[in-house]
Amino acid sequence: MMLDTAGWEALRLSLLVGVVATGLALPLAIWVAWLLARRDFWGKAVLNALVHLPLVLPPVVTGYLLLIAFGRTGPIGRFLEQTFGLVLAFRWTGAVLAAIVMGFPLMVRAIRLAIEAVDPKIEEAAATLGAPGWAVFSTITLPLIMPGILAGGVMGFAKAIGEFGATITFVANIPGETQTLPSAIYALLQVPGGEADAVRLVLWACVLALSAVVISEWLARRVAARIAGT
Amino acid sequence: MSLSVTLAHRFGAFDLDIAFDAPAGVTAIFGRSGAGKTTLVNAVAGLLRPDTARITVDGVVFDDVKTHLPAHKRRVGYVFQDARLFPHLSVADNLDYARRFGARTRDRARVIEMLGIGALLTRRPATLSGGERQRVALGRALLSDPRVLLMDEPLAALDGPRKAEILPYLDRLKSEAGMPILYVSHAVDEVARLADHMVLLADGRIARQGPIFDVMADPAAIPLLGVREAGAVLRARVEAHGDDGLSTLRVAAGTLQLLGVSAPVGSDVRLRVLAQDVLLSLDTPRGLSAQNILPVTIKDIRAGGGPGAAVVLDAGGDVLLARVTARAVASMGLQTGQTLFAVIKATSVGQTAISGGVSAAPAPRP
Q1: CATH classification code of B231-356
Q2: What share of chain A is helix, strand, coil (3-state, %, to 5)?
Q3: Which of B12, B83, B223, B287 has the highest CB neighbour number within 10 Å of its CB?
Q4: CA closest to B84 among chain A residues
Q5: Thinking of the domain B2-216, which architecture would CATH place it in?
Q6: Radius of gyration of chain A (CA)
Q7: Do residue B77 and residue A140 have CB atoms under 8 angstroms apart?
Q8: pTM of the entire predicted model
Q9: Complex-level ipTM
Q10: CA distance B149 to B175
């Protein structure tokens, strides 16, 4: 299981991208899931389609669209660079953006299902007891959907670690900057004799994915038990 | 302390158009499924915005032409049919939920004691029985320091024994709460036991309203209550309990011997006498197995839509309702002003139809 420097770097970068992307995307995913589950507004169908688009588009297409919009000459990319000095294209920050976009539909789906499972009548009861809307959400809805948030978070994290197509299209495959685990495996498989190193990375990928699932299952069960009070 | 409701609301083919006042005490909202009971209560709670409404409690405007106070600012205590406890919170946290939002809790310890839920405080809702859940829900509503208490069929989801477990607590609540209580029900026995006032809803309109004794004795209310459920409610005082299980109760026109009375001697109780259980006799009845015979005067005779007729009787100031056949009215020559005898079967007043007044509430089991 020992890796060379490039391997460690890829592993470290994947974890970094996964953690940052999940942390940034989760609050937004909770808000969008709540909108889709509990609100009726003009353009809801459009928002829903937009959120799910990366799930059905070829990842390379998503990556290319990101490059057009967020590249240094793209409209949003130029704005970000001039205003905040933030460059996404061919940087690890771009890998984070790709991971967020690709993982977002998975997070929203899981959290939306959890919100829809909460009986709105319980929320009404909270309102009659004096709870304003934000308090109903934070004291009733949020604790009750915690298992769904965990599930969505783990799926988003796993997607972020494993994202390949959109990432390599948007930020390429630069060792130490944008070469995540899957990119590194792909690169190793392209050179003769790289297979042994590739297999080690593959094993690490398996370990990461499995631990994520096991930890989330364990957390979800603890949360569910706390909610049910058993 | 009074709740005033005027509202009109239309949804689909159904429209609700009602106006009534509910003073302190229990006002029963009675009607069949689909009569608009829950819509009315949800409008008072602010969970639904009616097309037009004026709803006020003690001068506080809930709804008006340009006002719609949001639910969380109304301070209504709402007890739902399905309890709706927060599953992730303990019983204590459920009870104290309203405190997080500034409810100045009245005597918390006394509410917990009154409802007998002190032993449940650390439990989670999932581990409670249906009756316990409903008691906690009632406590949670009371501890929100409400201006008005709304109870939407709080007993409908419970079986007989669970109902019997809760009713004594409601008796106590009614005498201690001191605020308007809207009690939605389609069970006549609960209403006859608990309510001070009654609003009869039918197809989105108020068919009858007034003090419970008047509405229950109104022959026009019979088809709305159901012919098997209709019957006057009398005030009675327990005079003695016999060794044979029969108790003697005094009503205005005499005494009745009844089974299954648990209230102590000297206490005032309500008796619900079903209209179909009252027989009429022109002569002093002799040789009958029924023991309860009261001299009465006919106040009114109302022909029903079918073969039945309702006879309104004055029994020493009390009003009794008797349901007889139209043929009997004709063959007996019954007419207004006539004096005769009403025969009431002793077994016809069931356990649940007898309710304590303030002093006669059966002691709640802990």
Answers
A1: 2.40.50.100
A2: 80, 0, 20
A3: B83
A4: A122
A5: 3-Layer(aba) Sandwich (3.40)
A6: 20
A7: no
A8: 0.83
A9: 0.82
A10: 13
